[in-house]
Amino acid sequence: MKKVHEVCKSIGVTRRTLHYYDEIGLLSPTVRTESGYRLYDDMAVEKLFKILLLSELGYSLNDIQEMMNNPDVDLRDSIGNQIKILNKKKARLENLIGYANTIKLTGIIPLNFKEYGDITFEEFIEKSKNTYNMNMFTNNTEGINNPLDSKLIQKAEELLTLPEKEWYEYETSELLEILEMAKNILSVTDFNEIRTNNELMDEFMKFVDKDVSSKEVQEHVEKLYDYMNKDKDHPMSLGNFSLIGKTFAAGGDVDMLFTSSLGKETTDYIAKAIQVYCDNFTVEQREEEGGRR
């Protein structure tokens, strides 16, 4: 027979847990002494292990109690159903991890309510998780993704775990390769043309003293936009181009990686220049539509 403190020490549960199990009738001590001690024999300890194991598998205490008290419960069927429940939880967690990884990558929390309209938070988060998600990189097998298999995450994490001084050894082309792998999330059509024209990115360093709205700078932003859309049947939307611009200064992995190559002043400048371009483009579109009316 073991006393409460001995059971707690050997198994790793608290007194409060044992007392609660006793209180709800899930696990009672084998003997109560006249002096008030609760004693547990080997069978009671074995039962405690089973309770803890089933709890670890996700069963509620009510479900465990029913299984313990009902000899007709088919353990195999019950575990099979529990596996289905666990797989649903696993898929949800993977989805959340992919969503969190995307926010970490871009540095942007997607709170574009205009895009979704008047919806509840539950509706918003469901749509947002399904569209702004690192899981889009992974091969979908039976509906289950593992966002940590993403080449992008592996590449970005590999660089970000290096000492900062070593970031400067990476060429702009290697950083653009990472952003190119992010094209599904950002809806970018192709970064190959940019990668073969690193001067496009590097030249922004020459412009940092100029007004972002100047003709010269905006013409350079337009070159960047045109390269992204070269030979494409469906050009990238201004909304997606604006999102790409924001990632350069949002504090996420993309920002940190490009900052290591171009410098913080330049990446902030690129973000502002792209946003001005998108804003001006939108104004021009509205004016054209107004003129047609």
TrEMBL record:
UniProt-listed InterPro entries: DNA-bd_dom_put_sf, MerR-type_HTH_dom, MerR_fam, TipA-like_antibiotic-bd
SMART domains, sorted: HTH_MERR (SM00422)
All residue ranges annotated as the HTH merR-type domain in the record: 1-70
Keywords attached to this entry: DNA-binding
Molecular function GO labels: DNA binding; DNA-binding transcription factor activity
SUPFAM superfamilies referenced in this protein's UniProt entry, alphabetically: Antibiotic binding domain of TipA-like multidrug resistance regulators (SSF89082), Putative DNA-binding domain (SSF46955)
UniProt entry tagged with the keyword DNA-binding: yes
Keyword field contains DNA-binding: yes
Entry-linked Pfam families: MerR_1
Coiled-coil segments: none
Protein's name according to its UniProt entry: MerR family transcriptional regulator
